[in-house]
From TrEMBL:
This is Mannose-1-phosphate guanylyltransferase. The lineage of its organism: Bacteria, Bacillati, Bacillota, Clostridia, Lutisporales. Gene3D superfamilies: Spore Coat Polysaccharide Biosynthesis Protein SpsA, Chain A (3.90.550.10). Keywords: Nucleotidyltransferase, Transferase. It comes from Lutispora saccharofermentans. Residues 299-348 form the MannoseP isomerase/GMP-like beta-helix domain.
Length: 358
């Protein structure tokens, strides 16, 4: 049977100060009336029965998820005792699904992506589910690059799979980490690279075999978690094993090491709205090139992204800035340095007096 797993534990740090540790971007609605989590849940309901949709998160977000997704079943919220990266949360979820259904096929989705063509999205996932159901392969979704983006990882495609699939599918040659601008431009010129969307499809059993091979220590912890499910010691075992695990992402731990990975080249509009400059693709420009939300007044100011709430934001003679105003934080940042917001938060976290603003 087919299942969906929505990952909902991230902090969305590059979207600060709107996105906070206590209320990260998946719970916000930057592009419409629904939050990003609600949109993700709504999309996948068109493919997966609601009783087979699971959300994995940490204990800090349980109440928010219950409020935003009242339709989610009581047992369909998987709560981690602590954050230990995506390999842990996905593996933990996989053993839970395997306990329920030994033939489970998992569609793994981040909770904070924007999808434009939902019909094409569903068609792509259906193809991936068919491939996963009938093979041992791990499936990822790749996006044709439209610009030399430095905020995404890339996938180099290999041989095209000689099947009559309606959507082009390739053997993955290698995964590449976030490049600099020059390297990203080379990837686009090369034509054999796709953006790594972070969406995956696989049989839970096939995935766990990869853990056994490439992450044996985590695999042993996952076995202990599986054996504890449904017992009086379930939560204590879960905490004990999580304490042992050294966190690693699913990309580093499994996808980059496995030889059994296919990538489907998607043809639906995709964006992870990962930083403030991503918003420029969805905000109208005024005659000065400024893109604004809230109350903004300017003199001789150009090409700024401005996001306010209640207060007037006034600017004189400034260019190429990101200005974000919230109740307790004002961010002013050069557009080309929006990737440094994550580093700024790291430094804030080291300051005892300021860490509560993260």
């Amino acid at each position: 049977m087919n299942y969906a797993l929505i990952m909902c534990g991230g902090s969305g740090s590059r979207f600060w100060p709107k996105s906070r540790k206590a209320y990260p971007k998946q719970f916000l609605n930057p592009l419409g009336p629904d939050t990003m989590l609600q949109s993700t849940f709504s999309r996948i309901r068109n493919l997966i029965p609601i009783e087979n949709i699971y959300v994995v998160t940490n204990k800090n977000y349980v109440d928010i998820i219950r409020e935003q997704l009242p339709e989610l079943g009581e047992d369909n919220l998987i709560v981690e005792p602590m954050q230990k990266e995506t390999a842990t949360c996905i593996g933990h979820s996989a053993v839970r699904l395997m306990k329920k259904d030994s033939e489970a096929v998992m569609v793994v989705l981040p909770s904070d992506h924007h999808i434009e063509n939902e019909n094409a999205f569903i068609t792509t996932l259906q193809q991936g589910m068919l491939i996963a159901e009938n093979s041992k392969h791990l499936i990822t979704i790749g996006v044709k690059p439209t610009r030399p983006e430095t905020a995404y990882g890339y996938i180099q495609i290999g041989k095209k799979i000689d099947e009559e699939w309606p959507i082009d599918t390739y053997k993955v040659r290698r995964f590449t980490e976030k490049p600099n601008k020059e390297k990203a431009a080379e990837f686009i010129e090369d034509g054999r690279y796709l953006w790594n969307s972070g969406m995956f499809i696989w049989k839970a059993s096939s995935l766990l075999k990869q853990y056994k091979k490439h992450l044996p220590e985590i695999y042993e912890s996952l076995k202990a978690i599986r054996d504890g499910l449904g017992t009086d010691n379930e939560f204590s075992i879960l905490e004990e094993e999580y304490e042992k695990i050294e966190g690693i992402s699913i990309d580093y731990g499994i996808m980059e090491k496995s030889k059994d990975v296919y990538v489907i080249e998607c043809n639906f509009g995709w964006d992870d709205i990962g930083n403030w400059t991503a918003m420029e693709r969805y905000m109208e420009r005024d005659e000065w090139g400024n893109q604004t939300k809230g109350i903004f007044f300017q003199m001789d100011s150009r090409d700024c992204i401005v996001c306010g709430e209640k207060r007037l934001i006034a600017a004189i003679g400034v260019n190429d800035l990101i200005i974000v105003d919230t109740d307790d934080v004002l961010l002013i940042c050069r557009r080309e340095r929006d990737q440094d917001i994550k580093e700024l938060l790291s430094k804030l976290g080291e300051n005892v007096e300021l860490k509560d603003y993260i």
